[in-house]
Amino acid sequence: MRQKRAKAYRKLMSLYCMSFGFRQPYQVLVDSEMCKTAISHKYELVKQMGVVLQGTVKPMITQCCIHELYLQGKSEQPSVDLAKTFERRKCNHREPIPGDECLADVVGETNKHRYVIATQSTELRDKLRLIPAVPVVHMNRSVMILEPPSDATMDAKEANEEKSMHASTSETKLGATAASSEPPRKKRKGPKGPNPLSVKKKKAEPLKQSKPHRTGESSASTTGAKRTSDRTTEEGHSEADSGHKRKRKRKRKTMEDVGEEDSE
Ligand SMILES: [Zn+2]
To answer: Compositional bias of type Polar residues: which residue ranges (predicted)?
Structure first.
């Protein structure tokens, strides 16, 4: 393998590892045509997969794919023998289905088991390009090719990076777990809109200025309780309400108040 290609493949495999959790040994699902091609070209399939993927590989074959080879009779016995050395992947298709369909089904929408697919089917390759994080190898004459990353893969990679970027701004070392705590903060920033309105209200009702407006999170026990008791008559119930509900009510209330003032 030429050095430039080797470098590109190494980079690509590290992308799959870093962004999508691929690990060695890479689980490679080999289709029946790939087995036949390897036999007819006297190609050391497993060894070459290791070279191209630049790591240890675990070749696998689904029940449906090996069934396809059985169907082709004695002439393909060497391919069957090769396939038999691979780990059998149970696909649970009771009636064997075409290998292409079987592999597409095993990969599913997310390739959650992180398979590499070794297939000679251009149709299947087209299909797999639509699913993020599916490394695909095929043979071109007697050269094994690792496909460049699909658009779906690159989009998913960028989305992942964006997530971890946000995470790193808040907590540097927690990584993905911190990302989940980020979106709610953003949402809280959203309702800033009503603030200018509440300023108006302060001017109109100087008596209430002694109470801090909408900053009651820390002092919910004192001022918060007072305020809820103010509203209790209208809301009907208040004591058992959680802090969140109170907050929401307050906001609605201020909006209503402002509306009334405007009409006056
Ligand atoms: Zn199957």
So the answer is: 217-226
Instruction: Single out the residue of 69, 4, 74, 5 nearest to residue 33, CA to CA.
Output: 69
Eight-class DSSP state of 212 = P
Find the 94 Cα to ligand 1 centroid distance in Å: 8
d(CA 12, CA 133): 11
**Domains recognised in the chain with CATH numbers:** 3-149 (3.40.50.1010), 157-187 (no CATH), 193-263 (no CATH)
In angstroms, what is the span from residue 144 Cα to ligand 1's centroid?
Answer: 24
pLDDT band at 205 (very low <50, low <70, confident <90, very high): low
Largest CA distance in the chain: 96
Give the Å distance between the CA of 98 and the centre of ligand 1. 8
Indicate the length of the chain as a whole number. Answer: 264
Task: Characterize the bridge pairing of strands 136-140 and 143-146.
Answer: antiparallel
